[in-house]
């Protein structure tokens, strides 16, 4: 039920909270760090340089001034994030990896 998800972290492993917000179609403003770029492709969210409060402020203002555009970008990002982070698909990939490692047919 959020209008905007702001994630100004400096370090992330898997950025689970960002994945969850993106999968739900919530507009995003986040720091431009590698784990966030893996989730957000292109211009479908506002990414700002880390450790730059003024850039974060500008990203927030830009996003809040165009709520319809932000919602549209978030809606276009959501299906890709859901597909990339589908638990069933990821579990099958992991099982296949173990089978190949063990020399079993996939």
What does this structure look like?
With 106 residues, the protein is mainly alpha-helical. The protein is built from five helices and three strands; from the N terminus they run E-H-E-H-E-H-H-H. It has helices spanning 16-23, 34-39, 53-65, 67-84, 87-102; strands spanning 5-7, 28-31, 46-48. The chain has a three-stranded parallel β-sheet with strand order 1-2-3, sandwiched between helices. Helix 2 (34-39) links the parallel strand 2 (28-31) and strand 3. The radius of gyration is 16 Å and the shape is elongated. The termini are far apart. The relative contact order is 0.15. The model has no long low-confidence stretch (mean pLDDT 93).
Topology (elements, then pairings):
Elements (H helix, E strand, L loop, with lengths): L4 E3 L8 H8 L4 E4 L2 H6 L6 E3 L4 H13 L1 H18 L2 H16 L4
Parallel strand pairs: 1-2, 2-3
- Helix and strand content put the structural class at mainly alpha
How would you state the average pLDDT, rounded?
93
Q: Tell me, what's the shape? A: elongated
Tell me the fraction of residues in β-strands, as a range.
Answer: 5-15%
Biggest sheet, in brief? 3 strands, parallel
Termini separation (Å)?
41 Å
